[in-house]
Amino acid sequence: MRRYARSSDFVRASVRSRNGRDRAALLTLRPEAYPLAPAWLDAIAQAAPETADHRHPSAAMSSVRLLTRMTPDHRNGTPRQLDGSVGWSMPGASARVWPDGRIELRSTTGAELAGQLEGSEWDSWKVAAVADAGLRLLCAPKPAT
Hints:
By secondary structure, the chain is α+β, with helices and mostly antiparallel strands. The chain is built from 3 helices and 7 strands; from the N terminus they run βββααββββα. The mean pLDDT is 82.
């Protein structure tokens, strides 16, 4: 991973595929998400495909929600929006994934993890692992001060 650019109130960071050459994800990190950044980047690096070819992910987005372990109830199916995205929420956070690889995770406290997964090797299992890790980070209990 490496810092890609800094623009006003956010930082862009890239995660490389396992071959170390291709960019597998480009993330946007805002200040409220900085404490979560190391764990978020690590989760994406662990799920990253072997290579990235800059095409849209081949993940079946309708199955991403079903594979994400934090969702408490899978019986309702997956409502797909007009833009092709799939979203779900739970107490404290929500997730949305688009067919072009965009992913947004939001906490009710305002923290947001967002990025673009790049390359056709991202399958629904890998995307679900990234979404699951982000939701767990956003819902983790905050340490007492």
